[in-house]
Amino acid sequence: MQRPASGMSLHPGRLAGGRASRTCALIYREVPKAACSTIGQLLYHADHGKFFTGDIHDAGPEALQWPDPAFDTALGQPDRMIFAAVRNPYSRLLACFFDKVSTQQRDGSFYRGNLRDVLTQHYGADLDAKADPRPAFRRFVLFIRDTLRNRDRFWYDRHWTPQAQHLRSFTVNGLLFDHLFTVETFASGVAPILTRIPPDRRPALLPRFNVTRRPDLPTESYFDDLTLHLVHEIYRWDFDLFGYAAFEPAQRTATHPLDLDAINQRLADPHPPHWACLGG
After folding, report:
1. Residue 28: partners with Cβ closer than 8 Å, 6 or more residues away
2. Please, which residues have CB within 8 angstroms of residue 125's CB and are 6 or more apart in sequence?
3. CB neighbourhood size of 176 (10 A)
4. Helical (H) or strand (E) element with 3
5. Range with the lowest mean pLDDT among 6-10, 99-103, 214-218, 268-272?
6. Residue 146 DSSP class
7. pLDDT at 7 over 60
8. CA–CA separation, 110 vs 112, rounded Å?
């Protein structure tokens, strides 16, 4: 039997990554580096009538998450909407690199302690702030491929886990999505969610939160031939499910609309394709 993908479990209630509104029956499956801070702030605003001051991931119990018992209450609402957002794998991976490898975190330290040391000592990445970031990024992609292929649980990290594997934590537990949209079409994608929020708690303007800063270089310039193949190996299911163009990092938007029924069906399959479970 095919094992569940990384971070997944077939046990009921394994809904890590679930966020919700206490008042609007909105259930969100968080996908890191795919507008998750912005959507988290929207859910907070839906409950409190204002945005959280600071990073939404620091909001604690004020922002409803699984396994809070109130999450199950929201999940039990008959008019609930279960939704998520997905992002171009190339853009998402670059955001991971610049946010989690190149940049100091809110507490002044670097992410995951000695991650930078591993990249510099074992993969030869030059992470100096003045260096060209593209060679270091390519070494980072190789690191991700190695840790997933070798099932290295120590270096497993949700930020660069394939998006399909995140969404599967809901579908393999019987929770199908009512709405999916791409980050690249955020304004139209978030519109059905905004309509469910009462006017007095609906934000007049929804800014983007925690936007990753990176050098003004073309996306495609980061991906040489080897890196293109590695990204496809890691994120093949994301490309296949969500309609993004493999081997074309300059093509930012999906090439066809999301087929919600087909995505739900394929993500709920307990026996996904073997190539969909790199590191699973």
Report:
1. 18, 19, 20, 39, 40, 43, 82, 83, 84
2. 119, 135, 136, 139, 140
3. 14
4. none
5. 6-10
6. H
7. no
8. 7
Residue 267 in contact with residue 168, Cβ under 8 Å?
yes
The string of DSSP codes covering 27-59 is EEE--TTSSHHHHHHHHHHHHHSS--SS-GGG-
Contact, 86 vs 164, CB < 8 A?
A: no
- Report d(CA 110, CA 250) in Å as an integer: 29
Give the residues across from 179 on adjacent strands.
Answer: 83
The single-letter code of the amino acid at 253 is T
Cis amide linkage into residue 67, ω under 30° from 0: yes
Looking at residue 19, its amino acid is R
- Write out the two tokens for 33: 């580096």
Confidence category of residue 208, pLDDT binned at 50, 70, 90:
very high
Q: Which two tokens mark 259? A: 């087929």
Two tokens, residue 244: 């993004």
CA nearest neighbour of 48 among 26, 60, 63, 70? 63
First-last CA distance in the chain:
12
Query: In whole angstroms, what is the distance from residue 59 CA to residue 44 CA?
Result: 9
- For residue 243, which of 231, 232, 257 has the smallest C-alpha distance? 257
- Strands 26-29 and 81-86, by their bridges, are parallel
Closest CA to 214 of 86, 37, 56, 33: 33
* Tens digit of each residue's pLDDT (9 = 90 or more) over 108-144: 899 988 999 999 999 999 999 999 999 999 999 999 9
Let me know: does 125 contact 61? Beta carbons within 8 Å. Answer: no
